[in-house]
Write a structure and sequence with these properties.
- Strand 2, helix 5 and strand 3 form a beta-alpha-beta unit.
- About 14% of the residues have low confidence.
- The protein has six helices and five strands, in the order H-H-H-E-H-E-H-E-H-E-E.
- Strands 1-4-2-3-5 form a five-stranded mixed β-sheet.
- This is OmpA family protein.
């Protein structure tokens, strides 16, 4: 039996076409190209509504706070101007304070209680301040850094007497003192007119009394009596 030629050719082609693997399916998975995700568009930066010269202006840093003066009160247990051991020990501690630097100025204000006349108390208060000054100079402090002022009994810390008028010894003892203030140098003030208020003391050690009070000659110091 003879098979028609077209049917014979079709039967030969069918096995080839059916047995050929799909090229795309036969490719390994890792060879398949994966499209990257679409890139995100960068958001535009916000623009300032201020003018450039204003936006670029930066406020200067705040100045440091002013330095607080270093203070010490040197007491005098007994009347007179002699420094006792407790007073010198307190001054020595002040000298080792890290704030006690060479650029600072030292102001010594002498005080008394109310026993004695005003003029005598001014002398004693000055002598007390000078006693502290001399001790500082002996410790190596330059004399031109030190100023002395005598205030007498004008600025008490405590009452010198009780309300009934009786004596108050503890209060009077607290008022016998020298106040030391160490602070940065201040700009020089113009000289006070005659009859004005308190004047700066001389740096040569001769302190001026506060309130424009005049000082008596040095010869009177040795004749004082009753001042505290």
């Amino acid at each position: 039996m003879k098979v028609p030629l077209p049917l014979l050719l079709l039967s030969c082609l069918l096995p080839i076409s059916c047995g050929r693997p799909n090229d795309e399916a036969s490719k390994p998975a890792d060879s398949v190209k994966v499209s990257p995700p679409p890139a995100q568009q960068e958001k535009p930066k916000p623009t300032s509504v201020m003018r450039p010269e204003v936006a670029e202006k930066v406020d200067p840093p705040a100045p440091p706070p002013p330095t607080e003066p270093l203070r010490l009160v040197v007491g005098f247990v007994e009347p007179g101007a002699r420094l006792d051991d407790k007073a010198t020990e307190a001054i020595d501690r002040l000298l080792f304070d890290p704030r006690f630097t060479d650029d600072k100025q030292i102001r010594l204000a002498g005080h008394t209680d109310s026993i004695g006349s005003d003029s005598d108390n001014l002398r004693v208060s000055r002598l007390r301040a000078e006693a502290v000054r001399d001790y500082l100079v002996a410790k190596g402090i330059a004399a031109d850094r030190i100023s002395v002022i005598a205030l007498g009994e004008r600025r008490p810390l405590e009452p010198n007497a009780h309300a009934d008028g009786s004596d108050f010894p503890e209060g009077r003892q607290r008022n016998r003192r020298v106040e030391i203030m160490v602070s940065p140098p201040q700009p020089e003030a113009p000289e006070a007119e005659p009859g004005g208020q308190e004047s700066p003391s001389s740096r040569s050690g001769h302190g001026l009394s506060a309130g424009g009070g005049a000082e008596a000659p040095e010869s009177r110091i040795s004749t004082m009596s009753g001042a505290n």
